[in-house]
Amino acid sequence: MTHKQGSTARDHQPAEMALRAGTPTSPAVWRSVDEFAQTPAFREIVEREFPAGASELAGSSRRDFVKLMGASLALAGAATIPGCRRPDHKILTYSQIVPENIIPGKPLFYATSVPLPGGGAEGLLVETHEGRPTKVEGNPLHPNNRGRCSPQALASPLTIYDPDRLKFPVYDNPAKGKVAASWDDFALWSTEHFAQYAGDGSGLAFLVEPRSTPAWEATKAKVQKRYPNARWVSYLPAGSDAANEGSQIAFGQPMREVFDFGKARVVVALDRDFTEGEAGAIANARGFGASRRVWKSTDSMCRLYAVEPSYSGLGGLADHHVRLAPSQIPAFTVALAKAVLGSLNDAPLRAAVEAITLPDTSAFDSLPTETKGKSFVQLLAEDLLAAEHLGHSLIAVGKTQPAAIHALVHALNAALGNTGSTVRYIEQTGDLAAPVMAGLRSLTSEMASGSIKTIVCVNVNPVFDAPADLGFADAFAKVPARVCLSVGKTETSEASTWALNGAHWLESWSDTVANDGTIAPTQPMIAPLYEPAKNDIELLALLAGDEAPDGFAIVQQAWAKALGMQVVDGGFGKVWKRALRDGFLPDSGGTMSTPKVRTIEVSRALGAMTFAEAPAQGALDVVFTTGSIGDGRDANNAWLQEMPHHMTKVVWDNPVVVSPATARALDLEPDSYEKKRQPHARMATLRVGGRSMELPVWICPGMADNVAVVTLGYGRTTAGVVGDGVGFNTYALRAADQGALVRSGTLARTGKSYPISSTQNHWSLEGRYSLARWLDKPAWETHAAKAEAGPTHGRVEDPFDTSGDDGALSVAEKLGELTHTPANLSLYENPMNEGRGNPVAGSEYSKGLQWGMTIDMASCTGCNACTIACQSENNIPVVGKKEVAKGREMQWIRIDRYFVGDSLDEPDRVINQPLGCTQCENAPCETVCPVTATVHDREGLNVMAYNRCIGTRYCMNNCPYKARRFNFFDWAQTKTNGGLDPSYVPESIRNATDNGGQGSTFNQNLIPPRLLAKLDEVQKMKQNPNVTVRGRGVMEKCTYCLQRINSARAGAKVQGLDTIPDGYFQVACEQACPTESIVFGDILKPDSRVSNTRTSQRSYMLLGFLNVRPRTSHLMRVTNPNPAITAPVDTIAAHGGGHGGDHGDDHGDDTHSAPADDHSGETHSFRVDPRRRLDDDGYALSLNVLGTGVHL
């Protein structure tokens, strides 16, 4: 929970921002500022079934539309451009010579790996159909992934089939300008050109991305041998040297941590989300997620403290969340060190921290606690020092913090006994140990002075992402020969003499090293689409003198040398084949060490630190971070562009994000939500270190005040049709000598506004306070133990028992409406089920396979891996920024992010709730479809017949979960931001209509589909052939990956199995989830995972009182607060579960006094929902009927 600092933000809220009243034990739950304010426009969008603007086709003036259509009709003829018709399909034979191991219709899976920016790797399995990769999944054998995957890896098929990627080398001929060339042309040119540098290398520079693998190091050695004096510079635009420098101080060499959450009982995250964006993120997410789940009353779980400026995915799971400006975290860490080391035996380090005089620490000293006389920091230290937690805690610090604080955290982990237990270390080697910015700074100076005559840029884009103060682009232009290798178009390739088309990792040989040191091969799934492309090691080998570089041979030779073998040895052949089969080299993990902390050096570094004053309105903390598209390399990936940010839910943009209080103080609050108008952010001028830029400003609750978070990677100009012009290039605000945190920034309103597309108000559901559920661990232990001793929840025995003690209710269900309503038993006999219990014996739902799913909110970080996995598996299209603004996004599974609490500035907690079609047994959508396009099958699935659907959208209107998606246009058939089809529309008309691009002002969806640019053939290669591509006018939704169920059924039949075993296959979202929060299977099998999780005491059904009986159930979160800091609350007792008819005192307030009128001696007491009384006029009016005896 978030801890309040001083006066509450609610004291300063204007009247129009007043929240519906919550109760101490039933706090308000909300998703956005607009919902918090309860504006009339927001209430209207909640109450109507379709998102505001979803049905309107406005977007251009009628005159513009008629003008274009008149020209179009004249061009193509009215009969050839129907507005809405099914596309033509051509049937072609598979006439090529089919390889022996390829069976049409049956996918093959190959193990491979992909390197991560800044080091580390993901071990993957790639699904291929007839030789083309279509889906990326985690390798279940790889130690890092264990079958899980990141959104970026999942979205990579979109990159390999990107029609805007470089297809051939381009040479900037001094006489003719840019001309198409070939790799043979470049080989001839490079042989002659680089011969002048052989044996010396002066005047030659290589600018590369940091990597360190056997093949990379071997190739690098060859380059340096041929060019001994050449400059070799590694560069990571969004990287930070703080972690390497901190470990250098603490241990004498750069090292990185490897965490073991299985042993951790207390975790402290200081401005760090170790589950996302770093080398060990997938392994960390999996381990931490497992440490947070409880199934029985006696299960233990770890406790998480998060101290950060804004909610991260990890911070949303925190038991104690402290919003603190990043410039104040060093002081917090030193204060924590003083409290911890005072009870330990590290005298030199204790003396060093005691000698530090901290500035004003009221920001965290004033945090409220349950223990009088002790501060939050003292109680946190006592928790770390508890006997049962020594050696079982973990402290982690993020890249915004200085090197000395990193060194101090290493020392604290050692002092607490964590080193060697929950924290181990592995040495950073090669380019990963080099500074990320110092080399670029000196290289730029040499280029500007004319010292560099030739530069080779390998998979980097410094013309776009180099710090603005360096003037890299101008210096780069002064270099006579500029060679750039990249897969896609970049600003650097555009400015180069030679722009070389690089091979994608899915079409080339290489190798990787994971966070724990595991070595893995990268093997091609397909030959280069645009032959003969080369990857990084092949280009470097070519320049090192290899006439015909082959990635396969390079990797084999490097591995054989590292293993002390020869490639021709039979033993190496066995090792190699096994590595290709398993996806990694067995027993290749790096040597884990427990280095001794150099206390004197740490003390010296701490003594040299200066501590900043708290930020103010005129001196903001500006934090530079990255989002879904990373440092900009994935800007042309539409899946990642349309992936909502885990907190702001913004897509296709990178606004500056500030707290509500900061926005109010600086007059930067966005326009209120309006039904027919896209949300608009205020534009402001952000000034940082003498540089300025106009940017939109967006509000996010839970942020520290006077902090501005800026996302890098947007504003590309040479990315492609999808990425060009999206967002703002905030690299222009960075300086080479500044890290991820910059002090003394300012924001000043400009008077302009900017349209923002955010999904946070879309698909909003009523009954909010009972949708997202949580319970403190002491209350969980009490109620779970009681449930375990009594009957398990199942069939309702007493349909009128509303006391909350009914054994039919799980612990989680007692937090909802079912404790205050009669049991959901129909007046009519249901042939399939009995109320909330098991299916009727002999009914269809009681036999065979019955599919179901559970989603655990105790471990979901909102990373969106499930969303991208579903999009890749099910051929789900993107719709673009303008269509998302109208509520037309097509993702089948969304993640609803809920804030909890009565304060806009300091919500108590954040809960993520993934939600797709819940496959209701009593599905409301089926009863209203006039053509029975949506029906139930015998295995309990709500299935769609796309060719029956006529697009009435009645089913969408009747879905209580708002899980259905409608194809308003031919998004799956046309190119994202692709404009008009040049084969139909002449250039004059295309130019007149502002053709293409994200910034287009004309609504091109109003144009008949045949005139729009179609998908290139290469783009169609990414589609899953087992899933129908839906056309315009068709409704769609989650199918529980029906194609995978059918494939598993066929596979089980071939193997002679009577049924599909549990775990035989996984659905896409379940397979991808890094924290393993999603479980799918047969709910009738008593020993299946889904059966056990579904019958858990944490399980409940969303909107269960509707009796639609969803097959997807959610698992409530159990929190583990420190009782010395926050007193645990028994929300069930306060909510109404487990009390008598008069409710006693369990509600925790003083509103239960006896009524003045006892109605002839009888005392009546009625519970009133305070939020509903404010929201629902009819409900409030009905309270008059109840008379006296009404209480909250």
UniProtKB/TrEMBL annotation:
<keyword id="KW-0560">Oxidoreductase</keyword>
<protein>
    <submittedName>
        <fullName>Molybdopterin oxidoreductase, iron-sulfur binding subunit</fullName>
        <ecNumber>1.2.7.-</ecNumber>
    </submittedName>
</protein>
<feature type="domain" description="4Fe-4S ferredoxin-type">
    <location>
        <begin position="907"/>
        <end position="939"/>
    </location>
</feature>
<feature type="compositionally biased region" description="Basic and acidic residues">
    <location>
        <begin position="1140"/>
        <end position="1171"/>
    </location>
</feature>
<dbReference type="InterPro" id="IPR017896">
    <property type="entry name" value="4Fe4S_Fe-S-bd"/>
</dbReference>
<dbReference type="GO" id="GO:0016491">
    <property type="term" value="F:oxidoreductase activity"/>
</dbReference>
<feature type="region of interest" description="Disordered">
    <location>
        <begin position="1130"/>
        <end position="1171"/>
    </location>
</feature>
<feature type="region of interest" description="Disordered">
    <location>
        <begin position="787"/>
        <end position="808"/>
    </location>
</feature>
<dbReference type="InterPro" id="IPR030948">
    <property type="entry name" value="TAT_var_transloc_signal_dom"/>
</dbReference>
<dbReference type="Pfam" id="PF13247">
    <property type="entry name" value="Fer4_11"/>
</dbReference>
<feature type="domain" description="4Fe-4S ferredoxin-type">
    <location>
        <begin position="851"/>
        <end position="881"/>
    </location>
</feature>
<feature type="domain" description="4Fe-4S ferredoxin-type">
    <location>
        <begin position="940"/>
        <end position="969"/>
    </location>
</feature>
<feature type="region of interest" description="Disordered">
    <location>
        <begin position="1"/>
        <end position="24"/>
    </location>
</feature>
